[in-house]
Task: inverse folding
């Protein structure tokens, strides 16, 4: 699977994280894609007020390296469980995760100073330390941030594609059962996340009445697109990144939730039928019990 420690966030992603208000509840999301899904849900967090989500409810998308392409359902669940294992650890715990050789080079005291008062360390030494961390594949600051960031009644969520081309029926069944056994919220879109986006952009049931089988099969049609992703790209004018959320999706989220009810929303049936239960995530985030 690659690095044991996959939770990684770039310096850009960490901007403003230390200014976050202590939340009532955090929805921790582990998602398949590194681009579209991450951008979409981080924009949901940014526009909570407009979406009638309680200000004290937060959405935290778990980040991994751009080079980490382990996006099969079991890897999405593993990333969530890496966070859950980390949750509640102490500073000593995350330092102890580092290899003995690394801790021989940098003392526990040095690492603790870096975590709490990095300005006290000479820039050259700090840069050398950060380079060695990168080579090790270990994001110390991000892990410390996640370790400390939690609400009083958090939810642990996985966001999966059905993806008939790569995810077997049994694999999907096993993932759903694992989520249910561990009280994780499991959100599936069949055939892919872009179908959820398409629900924002048009009346899918009417416009694609004669193309529902094309949507379900979602065949690869070019180096850049499947059938559904091409439809989204043509309508919204974006690729995997820079999805123009405020223009394309923010005004139409309630439309997408409503339209999803025209298709399958039962998580077990989503293995076989077109649809998405992502509308349930918004209903949970808006739940009056969170107020």
Result:
């Amino acid at each position: 699977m690659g690095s044991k420690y996959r939770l990684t966030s770039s310096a850009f992603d960490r901007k403003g994280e230390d200014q976050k208000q202590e939340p009532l509840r955090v929805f921790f999301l582990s998602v398949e894609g590194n681009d579209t899904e991450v951008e979409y849900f981080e924009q949901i967090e940014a526009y909570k007020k407009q979406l009638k989500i309680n200000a004290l409810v937060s959405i935290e998308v778990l980040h991994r390296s751009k080079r980490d392409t382990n996006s099969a359902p079991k890897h999405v669940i593993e990333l969530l469980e890496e966070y859950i294992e980390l949750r509640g650890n102490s500073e000593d715990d995350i330092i102890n995760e580092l290899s003995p050789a690394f801790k021989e080079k940098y003392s526990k005291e040095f690492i603790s100073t870096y975590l709490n008062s990095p300005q006290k360390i000479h820039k050259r030494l700090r840069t050398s330390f950060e380079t060695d961390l990168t080579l090790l594949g270990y994001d110390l600051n991000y892990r410390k941030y996640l370790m400390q960031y939690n609400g009083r009644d958090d939810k642990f969520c996985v966001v999966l594609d059905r993806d008939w081309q790569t995810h077997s029926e049994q694999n999907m069944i096993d993932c759903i059962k694992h989520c249910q056994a561990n009280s994780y919220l499991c959100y599936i879109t069949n055939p892919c996340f872009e179908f959820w986006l398409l629900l924002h952009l048009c009346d899918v049931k009417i416009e694609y009445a004669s193309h529902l089988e094309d949507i379900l099969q979602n065949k690869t049609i070019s180096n850049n697109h499947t059938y559904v992703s091409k439809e989204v790209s043509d309508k919204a004018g974006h690729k995997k990144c820079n999805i123009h959320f405020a223009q394309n999706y923010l005004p139409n989220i309630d439309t997408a939730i409503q339209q999803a009810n025209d298709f399958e929303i039962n998580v077990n049936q989503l293995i076989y039928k077109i649809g998405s239960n992502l509308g349930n995530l918004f209903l949970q985030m808006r739940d009056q019990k969170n107020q």
Notes: The first strand starts at residue 25 and ends at 31. The two ends are 40 Å apart (CA to CA).
